[in-house]
C-alpha cells in the first residue's frame, strides 16, 4: 500500500487545490491512504498584520475538519483518508496548541517548527531574517525548539526535522561537528518521546536539494529505532506523491522495512514497498 501523509490545500492560502481534488488524485495515482494535513491557524501573530497566505483562518478550522470527515465517508472503499494537522510548535504557546490538538478527532498531528519567534524560517519571503545573524546560533535555537516540541506529547509525527537547511543557509564546514551534535540531540529527543518522524521529499525541489532529513540523520534515526513515515508536502494536487518513490528507496537503503500509519492517534506499522 502506498501512502502520502503530508499535504496542503487551498485553505492554507499558499497552496492550490480543494481537498477533494487531492483525494481524487490520490485514487488516480494508486494511494491506499492519503493524509490531509493542512497548517494549524496562526496563534502567536496577528494574521491581519503578518505576511499573508500563511495558514487557514481560525474560523476555517472546524470547516476543514468537517470537510475531511465527509470526504472520508464519501470515498470509503476507494481510498483511506486520514484526518491530519500540521501543528506548529511555538515556544510559549503550548496551551493554545494543546487546545487545538485536543479539540478535534485527528488521526495524527505533525509537529513542525517553522517559527523562531515571529520569523518563519521556511518562508521564501523571509530569508532576510538570516542577515546579520550567527547561523550556528540560529541552528541551536531551531534544534532546541525541535527537542521541546518532541517532549510536549502533542504530536504523533515530527515533521521535516532539518528544514532549517531549506534555503541553503548553514554555519559552514568549520561547524559541521556542532551541527551534527545538534541534529543528534534532536533525534535523541524524538526517540525518547516515542513519536514517529517523516521523510519529507519536498526538500528535493528546494535550494537545499535534499530530503528532510538528510541521509545521515536517517541512518541515525534507524539506529535509534525511530519509526518513519513519508510525505510529499504537496501544495498542488498534481504534486501529490511527488518523489515518494525516492523517499521509499532511501528508507529501504538505510534498512527500514516498515512505515508508520495512524488512525485516531494510534500508530501501526505497515510493510514498506519500494
In short:
The chain has 274 residues and is α/β, with parallel strands linked by helices. 33% of the residues lie in helices and 18% in strands.
Characterize the structure shown.
There is one protein chain. With 274 residues, this protein is of the alpha/beta class. 33% of the residues lie in helices and 18% in strands. The chain has seven helices and eleven strands. It has helices spanning 19-28, 61-74, 94-103, 135-152, 176-193, 215-224, 244-254, and strands spanning 2-4, 31-36, 80-88, 108-112, 115-116, 119-120, 157-158, 196-200, 228-231, 258-263, 266-271. Strands 1-2-3-4-7-8-9 form a seven-stranded parallel sheet. Strands 5-6 form a two-stranded antiparallel ribbon. A two-stranded antiparallel sheet has the order 10-11. The longest helix is centred in the middle third of the chain and has 18 residues, at 135-152. The protein is globular and about 55 Å long. The termini are close together. The model has no long low-confidence stretch (mean pLDDT 98).
Q: Number of helical segments?
A: 7
- The ordered H/E elements are EHEHEHEEEHEHEHEHEE
Share in β-strands: 15-25%
User: From the alpha-carbon coordinates, what is the Rg to the nearest angstrom?
Assistant: 17 Å
Assembly form of the protein: single chain
Which residues form runs of ≥5 with pLDDT under 50? none
Largest sheet: 7 strands, parallel
Mean pLDDT: 98
